[in-house]
Amino acid sequence: MALTDEAIDKIKGMIVSGELGPGARLPKEADLAERLGLSRNSLREAVRALSMIRVLDVRQGDGTYVTSLEPKMLLDALSFVVDFHQDDTVLQFLEVRRVLEPAAAALAADRMLDDDIDKLQLILDDLGDEPTIEALVANDIEFHRQIAVGTDNAVLASLVDGLSGPTMRARIWRGLTQEGAAARTREQHQAIVDAIASRQPELARSWATVHIAGVEEWLRRVL
What we know:
By secondary structure, this protein is mainly alpha-helical. Helices cover 71% and strands 4% of the residues. It has a two-stranded antiparallel ribbon.
């Protein structure tokens, strides 16, 4: 493992230094191993590990390439990690959402295009008067995703998207068991949209905090 870690560090160094940029093809395995002073087995294991986290793309019969290194691609690994979360860690994911999503709402109030704000309102309007809990949660996920996209920050958008899944069951559970949860969610979403539309970042931040904290507070009580 130590030799594999060394191989990973050396390949990473080549990418960070700019020697291997996005889309670049790695030298042949034998040549690269000799150049870096590594065994071919260690190099092979390092390439396998880096391909799993989307840093490298191994194309059979063609070679190994550096990926685009775009945030969304690299942060796909986050989704892989959070899929293994246990129910007792869902509060930790909600805490992270409470940090990130109010900040995203504030940024969206400054940066979101008018047309995208109109689309955000349409997401709420399309929900209907008596949505199922599943439809409400799906709408909630899309609502927060669109706000994050509206920040014009690809890293933040990818983080928000990656963290939405682990709290889905908690949101469905709340919708099924807490009286008035659906109506409260819709009211808070509308308040967030109104704050973004009126270009009031701190008001958007406050409403988003209230919204996320409400789910977190409920879950702390019932666990």
